[in-house]
Every structure is written in C-alpha cells, then in structure tokens.
Specification:
single chain; 561 residues; alpha/beta; Urease, subunit C, domain 1; Diaminopimelate Epimerase, Chain A, domain 1; TIM Barrel; 3 domains; eight-stranded mixed sheet; eight-stranded parallel sheet; 19 helices; 22 strands
C-alpha cells in the first residue's frame, strides 16, 4: 500500500475538545482559529463513520492516536495542519469503526492455532482418522487432546463415544472437547484414569451420559468433565504466553481491533500486561475474569492503555448442543432432561450483591430460557441500577414474555450471530418449533430497545468478523441455506449489524466516549475490508478480506506487509 514517509511529530491536542471542523471566530473573538494537527491521515477510500450511515473519505489522527478531523480530502488542507503527517492511502478500500468481538476466549483462540483443531471435522469417521494420525506423531504415553468437534452435521447422526476412540487407539488416553466447551468425549482409558465408571453418580451441575443399559458412553457434560480434564497437564507459563500472542496475532489479521475476553484466570492478567508492554498484544482487550477474579476486577489491577480489567464472568447453565442449556420445559428430543443449572438463584443473588458492592460488571452466561429468566428475576428483585451495564452472555433462548424485560431492566444482551446459523440446524429438534419464537431474537430485542453487543464465542466458532456480520444480516448458513423455524424476520439491517460490533460493543465495555464510531475526539481504531459490507450482496460479504487493522492510530496489521 502506497504511503508517504512517516514523520512523527510530537503533537498533542490541548485539553479543550477540538471541533470536527474549525469554527469561524465570532464577532467578539479576537484569536484566530487553531487548526487541528495530524500525525497520520487515512484517505482515498470509503469510510463509514458509524454515525447514521455517514461516509467520508479522509480521517486525520494525531500523535496520541485520537481522531482530530473527518471529512473530504478536498477540504483537508484548509481544515487540518498536515505538516509532517504520514498519508495512508486506502486505495479505494472500505474503512469502518474498529470491529470488536464482544465475546471470545483469547487463550482458547491461540491454543486452537497451536494444537489439534477438530473444527472442520466432517464426520465421525474423519474424527477417528485424525485421532489415529495424531497418535502416530506422539509418544505412547502422551495424552491425545483435541478440541472443536461438533456432530450436528455428521452423517452418522450422533456424538462420538469412548468405543469409537478405543477402536482407533486401543488403550490410549484420548480427550476431545466439543466445540462449545461444555462437553467432551473421553476414551475408556481416560475415564478409568479419572475414576469414572458406570456407577459414578452425576456431579452437581454435570452429567455423565449413559446408554440404554446404564453404561457410561464417554460423553461428559459441564461439571462432569472436571476429573477427565484434570488429566491434562496445565499449560506452562511459556505456553500460555504463546497462546495469547498467537490469538492476538490471528485476531488482528482477521480485522478485529479488539475483543471482550471471557473467563480469564486472574493469574493471567499480569502476563497479558507484560506482553502488552512488550508490544506483543496488538488488539484492545476487555477482560471478564473468572469468578475468583473479583478482587482484581474491583481494583482494576494490571490495566494498560489497551487492556481493561473490570468485569467478572459467571455461568448459569451449559450449552444447547450438549443439552446443558437450562430450559423451562424439557428438551423436545430428550424429555427426561431440561438441562443443567450451574448456578442456583440464591448463589446468583449473593454474587450480584457482591458485584454491586464492589462495583464490578457482571457478564453472566445464560443460554436456556430458564437460565435467562432466573437472571432477570434476581436482577429485578435486587433493583440493580442499569448504570452497572451487567450483561447476559449469549441470551440465546428467551421466553417471549422476557424479551422486553431485558431493556426494561437495563441489561445488555451479548449475542453471537454465528450461533444462530449453526444452532438452527439442530435447535428445532432440541426445542421444538414453538420455542424458536424467542431464539436468537435479535430484531425483537432491538425493537424492544435492548443494546446488543455482537461477538463470536471463538474458539467455539471461527471468530471471523465477516462471518458474524453476514450471519446477523442474512440469518442463513454459510451456503445461503435456511430452514423451517429460522425466523428470517429476526435478521438485522446492515447499519444495525455494524453497531453490534462497534458502538454497542463499546457501550458494553464503558468505552462509548472513546470507541465505536469514527468521530473527532475518539480513539483511532479502524477496520479496513476490500468490500463494501453495507451494499454488496449478502453472499459477497463472505468473500471480503481484511486489508488493514488500526489500533490507537497505529497499523497493527496490513495485508500489504
């Protein structure tokens, strides 16, 4: 990409806010208007500011990484002091406010890149083949660990079982996490090593799947996974660092300028701060710590210019695919269960009171309609202020009566569009068609006045801003297909979809004064794609490519380099 030679000027905006364009002096004013000074200028493209569909072709950024002016390049010389500024030519590409993934797991994203990734496994047969290949490259004593399988499109029409793994690798320890992170399959050797057999009772908040004869199948759900997962060695500090660096790199390359990082162990906060200081964390990170992270979140410890620590993540239930989502009525395809409760109302009540006292934002995982309703009920009982901006992570299945309660109470719906286009292939079986009226109800929530922060839940999903944007506006799978019960009326306009990943994501992280739109005074976080996401046919959205990612006015990734 063509650029002039960069000459960094030590230019700092005055404490007074700068207007978007210089204002003419009034009759009583004697001083001349001071032009804002730019260190870097992005020009020669279509720039969507995120403000009511507004576009410009030029943005000027100062040496502190803040936007000082937007407008037409024809007016640049008259409005901005450009002496010594670097010009970054967009070459007719399309710039947007920085895309933020409002729900992701950065460590898992990095680990996926560095380990056995089963996300694209097309069948049980292929899963077995890949296990065999992995085993051949490891020592006999090594545990075979993988993640990312999901059985909903497999021709076999079922989850894998211990017997499948045993047939592939005999008595080896094999542990394979499902894509949603709420279920795994283990070989018989792994079950034995963890002390799980046919007589082991289900733990609280977990389930050991059994066949018709009562024998454990190898599928473990939510808290039942703990003994088996405990067999896997904790990653070393160096491995954790590598995963965070790799995850950050991948996200910058895909066009994400930031993410809301879920379920972060408090011990990782200082490591992330160190990596950021070393320039190895190019994206902006808003951490929601695990439940033991209250002290750190309350104190905003280990924060940097681009890393925030003020939220805590809780779990109400499991996932829909593994039938762990907590439902008001039983599953349509398994009437013997209505899912799992990982946090009872009394416990939620106590944690909400703790969070309010310590001024900590809560991000609460809830997928099933009963899990969501319990949050709403306890929140209402405690009369929590909307100013807290507490979030429901996923908000996937709502009873229609509860949709309007979310904005009325001031809760934020943190949702992942790709879940809909994936889950709707099996959700009718899990829920029946009647309950789909409140499933993935994006438009109904917006119509009711809710704020929806858009994310991906990577590594559960791919973690692509283009897939998430497409899913929000098309509400069709990646091949352009939909089916009965998909409720196309819940698809969003392009402008509303853009807001999910920009302005609403900023609001959900208390950053709306600094991020979310391209306006003077805000931080220069930009995402550049080679297609106009706001006008191209829906299927062409998926053909777009990231061109440039900008954080704090700095180009942290460019396709041209």
């Amino acid at each position: 990409m063509l650029r002039n030679t960069f000459i960094l000027s030590a230019i700092v905006l005055s404490a007074c806010a700068q207007p978007s364009t210089p204002q003419a002096a009034g009759p009583s004013e004697s001083a001349e208007t001071v032009e804002p000074a730019a260190a870097r200028i992005f020009a020669s493209g279509t720039i969507y500011t995120g403000v009511e569909g507004e576009t410009v072709d030029t943005v000027a950024v100062d040496g502190d990484g803040r936007i000082v002016w937007t407008g037409s390049i024809d007016d640049l010389d008259a409005e901005v002091d450009i002496e010594g500024a670097e010009f970054v030519w967009l070459d007719n590409n399309f710039m947007y406010p920085g895309f933020t993934d409002s729900h992701a797991h950065l460590l898992g994203i990095g680990q996926r890149e560095l380990s056995l990734d089963l996300a694209d496994t097309a069948s049980l047969e292929e899963l077995v083949t890949r296990i065999e290949a992995e085993a051949g490259g490891l020592g006999d004593e090594a545990i075979i660990v993988g993640r990312g399988w999901i059985e909903t499109d497999w021709p076999e029409g079922r989850m894998p079982a211990a017997a499948d793994l045993d047939a592939a690798v005999d008595d080896r320890l094999v542990i394979l996490m499902r894509a949603d992170g709420h279920a795994l399959v283990a070989s018989t050797a792994a079950l034995n090593a963890a002390g799980i057999d046919d007589t082991t009772p289900d733990p609280e908040g977990g389930k050991i799947e059994r066949d018709s004869d009562g024998k454990a199948t190898g599928i473990l759900i939510d808290n039942a996974m703990t003994p088996v997962w405990g067999l896997v060695a904790e990653p070393s500090e160096e491995e954790i660092r590598r995963a965070y660096v790799e995850g950050s790199r991948v996200y910058a390359e895909r066009g994400w300028t930031g993410l809301h990082n879920m379920s972060v162990p408090p011990a990782h906060a200082p490591l992330m701060a160190e990596l950021d200081a070393a320039g190895e964390m190019p994206v902006r990170i808003y951490n929601a710590l695990s439940e033991d992270g209250f002290p750190l979140a309350a104190g905003h410890e280990y924060e940097t210019d681009t890393i925030s620590n003020r939220a805590v993540k809780l779990y109400m239930d499991g996932a829909l695919g593994s039938r762990g989502a907590l439902l008001i009525e039983p599953y349509s395809d398994r009437p013997d269960t209505n899912g799992l409760s990982l946090l009872e109302p009394e416990g939620l009540h106590n944690l909400m009171m703790k969070a309010e006292e310590e001024d900590v934002q809560l991000a609460i995982h809830a997928i099933g309609d009963l899990a969501n309703r319990r949050i709403l009920n306890v929140y209402e009982e405690l009369d929590i202020s909307p100013d807290r901006r507490w979030r429901i992570e996923h908000t996937q299945i709502l009873h229609p009566d509860d949709i309007a309660r979310i904005p009325e109470l001031g809760l934020i719906a943190s949702m992942q569009p790709s879940h809909a286009i994936g889950d709707l292939k099996f959700a009718p079986a899990r829920l029946g068609f009647d309950r789909l009226d409140g499933a993935y109800a994006w438009q109904d929530l917006l119509d009711a006045g809710a704020v929806i922060a858009g994310g991906s839940d990577a590594p559960v999903e791919v973690g692509s801003p283009l897939i998430e944007f497409y899913a929000a506006v098309a509400r069709e799978d990646l091949e352009g297909n939909s089916g009965e019960g998909w409720h196309p009326e819940q698809a969003l306009s392009r402008q509303d979809a853009l807001a999910l990943f920009t302005s609403s994501a900023a609001y959900a992280a208390f950053m709306e004064d600094d991020l979310g739109t391209i306006e003077p005074g805000k931080l220069a976080d930009f995402t550049v794609f080679d297609r106009d996401l706001m006008t191209v046919p829906e299927d062409e959205i998926l053909e777009a490519n990231a061109v440039m990612t900008v954080v704090n006015g700095e180009i942290v990734w460019s396709a041209a380099e």
